[in-house]
Amino acid sequence: MQDFFDLTLGGISAGAVYAALGLALVIIYRATRVVNFAQPALALISTYLAYSVTKATGSYWLGFAVAIVAGTVLGVATERLLVRPLRHRSELSSIIVTLGLLLVLQAVAGMIWSNEPLAFPYAFDFRGRFSANDLFVVLVVLAIAGLVLVLFKYTPLGLRMRAAAFAPEVARTLGVRVGLMLTAGWGLAAAVGSLAGLLATPPFLFPNVLDGVFVYALTAAVLGGLDNPLGTIAGGFVLGVGLSYVSGYFGPEMVTIAALAILVIVLTLRPSGLFGRAKVRRV
Amino acid sequence: MSVRTESPETRVEPARKRRTLPPLLVHVLAAAGALAVVVALTLVTDEFTNLRIATIGYYLIAVAGLTLLTGLTGQVSLGHGAFMFIGAYTVALLVRRVPSFPLWADLLLASAAGGLAGLLAGAAAARLRGPYLAGATLALAVGLPALTRKFPDFLGGSNGIDFTVHSRPAGIGVPELRWQTWIVWLSVLLALVLVVNIVRGRLGRDFRAVRDDEVAAALSGIAVGRTKILAFLVSAVCGGLAGGLQAFLLGTAAPGSFTPALSLSLLAAVVLGGLGSLWGALWGAVALVYFQAWSEDLADVLHLNTDVANNLPLAVYGVILIVVVLAFPRGIQGGFHRLGAHLKSIRRGGKA
User: Fold this and answer.
1) B75 in any annotated domain
2) pTM
3) Nearest to B131 among A91, A97, A115 (CB)
4) Which end of chain A, N or C, is more open, meaning fewer C-beta atoms within 10 Å of its C-beta?
5) What is the largest CA-CA distance in chain A?
């Protein structure tokens, strides 16, 4: 029983990270109908920059801030340089290009910082059951998720972003700068993604550190229906707790396979995700 | 689908006047010719190049399988390394545990094991599309190699399974590696004959119909779900064989060879060669092997440090994926195709 309690608490803080990275994927998917497979790499580069800044200045929080800014810049650049030229091309094109960016950025990270694991600090004390750091992770993710939801739902900027995503032609007629809004969406998403990277990385940083987390985040986003931020956040926490049980009772090697099984089962029963609305596909 | 996937196979051939041989016979003859070329090449090159030729062989069948799936049927798979993983471990386990089995049976069972996994993946995949399918197959590529650590006694943990195969009959006086290269290419070409026959036949037409428009395909009586599963099956059989041949060639099966990066570089090879063209698979496989080799040479010449050198091939594959999709969506084979058409038009112009 004690085990069960510990696993649940551990799962909640892991799930918070999946929720945050999943949220980054969903913001981009809503805006441009692209699943950003480069997201873990954008977060990875930001996290490495945080590592370097923290090492040079001794301040964790300065590194933290640099990572968020760098993530935003990377997201904006990705949208402008790689994704926008493909907006009239197939789904496959954007999948392949973002995967290409993933390979390039992971390789670049390995070239600059080497493939060896580097020690990367926690924000707060991480010892004990549901440590200060765990609390920080959960609170930050909930706060950011809340801000993103409020932004989309209640602010003029959020309204413009939604309009640009769902009805670009009408939005343009009404004076919304659609291109700028899509870019803003990518910047916002990559910033959230970098935050997830900073929270997910400790204790060690290496080029493939976020691969697993990305698979779980994608699973969370798919559970939520890929264009449902609230569903994704819920999906992230549920998945975190579920995978924590798998890890505790069956071994950590089984976690990715379990995530795959959950993904396949959910999509077989509900092809648009647990909380997604069935979408009509235009032929 | 706007990645242009038109290929020579999709065009209707004009009726020929002279009688042609049955397609299967043509393909077998072509394969025999190709094997002769490979044997000749291995006889005039050193051992090092032999190994590269053999490596091209097993990449060729893996990339051809992925071409059939992604290029011809329109299903993206980021997990083809997982099928290679299954094939490689099947061969390693059979050699270690059932040494009485002949090599051809091991390779056949490796293909079958890959195919079985493909059938399961395909059954799930038939309901998924685009990004969902990509995510699920990526999970397969990330998750499957971790199983070696779950069953360290059976699957050898992170170090994998080492083994030795003595495949060369006693009377034949060629170096072991050269013989292995011949075996690899013989298996690959046999499999390719089957793949080409499938692609050029009725099933291939079904694949392309499903890729171009699922609804129209269903209306013309094609069972869309079953066709997609069949594409996954054929493709995974190719992946299993490729993995089995890799294990046979290297004498080892280890989880470190089957990272998600392998799956992504296979996709890079498909895209570079030209989506939807089996000839493209050959250019893609050659590129995979030689980009790796060249980047090692380049790192040597420029005295790059090991961090840069180790990561150079992946960076190159990534850049290829981006540049080809943005600028040359039809890949190398598309380029050849255009060149051929250009030359033809010049010749025709000259006659007039």
Assistant:
1) yes
2) 0.86
3) A91
4) N
5) 60
